[in-house]
Structure formats: structure tokens, C-alpha cells
What we know:
Blueprint (H helix, E strand, L loop, with lengths): L1 H19 L7 E3 L9 E6 L4 H16 L6 E6 L6 H15 L3 H14 L7 H10 L4 H8 L2 H16 L7 E4 L3 E3 L8 H16 L4
Parallel strand pairs: 2-3
Antiparallel strand pairs: 1-5, 2-4, 4-5
Helix pairs in contact: 2-8, 3-4, 3-7
Amino acid sequence: MKKLFILITAMLFLPFANAAQFKEGVHYDVIAEQATSTPQVAEYFSYYCPHCDKFEPIMTDVAKRLVDTDIKVEKNHVAFIGREMGIEMQKAFATAELLNVEPKMSSAIFTAVHDQKRRFSGRDDIRTVFIDAGINGKKFDAVVNSFAVKGKVARMDKNTAKKNIRGVPALIVNGKYQINMGSIKARGEEFKVKLTELIKYLAAKTD
């Protein structure tokens, strides 16, 4: 009976223990006065960023851990890395989303840039990656030049500017809290667990 009481007590205080380990100015910064009306986490990244390449599988796993919550995960490709090709990569990401092949194409592009060390000098080089991944070239052409892609790019640029994103990868929760990635002193599975806990904690904040 005593062991059962201790277990129940520990479970009751677990949320408070998790909350206590996260501190403003250490694990996260407040970057806006008002939070979004619904819980969300916005990821900012670039295909050209080597840290984003390493972070991609981690965030993919974290996103799966958030599936059963009401926290929406949104990705934003920034344009300030890669000069002209940064903009083309932004369009490639938007195109992949509209074709419902984003996870597959993000993995393929990251591999082409960082593992295969392929040089990209124009849209045709990106088109080749799509074709190699089994995407019809004509479908790619139609979507990448569409108003839908232009709209997505404009929204990502607006979000990047509004949140003053200057480095990636970056995570913004509820449009108000920016996670300090380096504050999570863990690796592997433990890092994913702590990052997920931090996202959930910030998504539930009401102040």
C-alpha cells in the first residue's frame, strides 16, 4: 500500500517536475507578446544548412511523438542561405509539400546536397532530384511555377521576417517561444524525449 501511495504521488507531481526543469532565458526565449490561438510548433530550416541536415531525422521523430496531441507542426524553408539557389530550394520544398512528397523529397535533397556533394546551379538540377525520386518532370514543372507555390514562399518569407529568424534550425512554439536548442544537454533518444517535453510544455503555457 505504501509503495502504491508513493507511485501515485510521484505521478501527480510529474508535470510539475517537468515544468520546473524548463526556464525562460535558458531553455527558451519569449519573442512575442501574444501566442497563437492554437498550439503549434514552427520549424525553420534550409536544405543548405548542415545542422538542419542532422536535425531533420530528429525533428521527424519528434513530430511523430506529437501526432496524438493537438500540436500542429509546420515547416518553413528560409531563403537567406544559398543566394539565388536558396530561393529555388524554398520553391522545391513548397512544390514537394503540394505534391504530398515532402518527407521523401526533403530526404533526397538533403542527401544530394550534404552526402553526395552535388552542385546546384539552377532549377534543372533540383528537377533532376525530383525525377530521380520518381516524380514526373511535367508535374514538377507545373507545380513549381504555380501561384500556390508563390503563395507558400511568400508566407514562409513573411514568417521568417516576422519572427526575425537569422539562424537555422530554429523552433518557435505558439508563435511566442523560441527554443534554445543548445540548452538541451542530451543526445540520441534522450534528446528527442527532452525536446518533445519542452515543446509540449511551451505549447500548454498560458502566460
